[in-house]
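Could you show me just one protein sequence together with its fold in token form as a worked example?
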Amino acid sequence: MNPYRMTRLAGLFALVSMVTMAAAVRAEAPPGRIDFVGKNAIMTANSTFHRWKITKSQVDLSKIGDSFVEVEVDLSSVDTGIERRDEHLRTADFFDVEKWPTATVRVQRARPTGGDTSGASGYDADFEITMHGVTKTIPGHFVIESSSPLRVVGDLTIDRIDFGIGEPKSWNPLSIEDAVPVHFEATLAS
């Protein structure tokens, strides 16, 4: 075989490999995003979890109160934009990912609250969260942005002390606020 043709075949093979790997990475990407904000008197850390998945769902928009969605979050995927801070969040001082690698969330008992300014349907729901060995149910809110595919956007606030994460807020200006706002966006497969 001539060397020019071999080079072209090798190039084609490399291109096909890159496309296949990119598709595999996209297939494993979560169907949305989960963000949270940690604050103290000096700075704000806008953070995200890069790895999470919907593990179970039963959604019927005509019976939204009976519907549920379960999500598993890989806590080691925390990203605040500063690797040193992320590594500290993974330690026993905070998430303790060696002992508690995941958090689970079950969104259930949705109740209509009316629409938002865009006309999307709004709901309050119970978020049963298991994290750091503790299970608590807290209120949250979400809006259905589209029904096909089903896309939701919502917010809740977690008191990190309820889950034994970090020390309670103190007089120290570097002490993190106990209340942590969480924002999520998710698309559920049909």
Summary: Residues 3-28 form the longest helix (26 residues). Residues 31-188 form a domain with the Lipocalin fold (CATH 2.40.128.110). The mean pLDDT is 83. Helices lie at 3-28, 83-90.
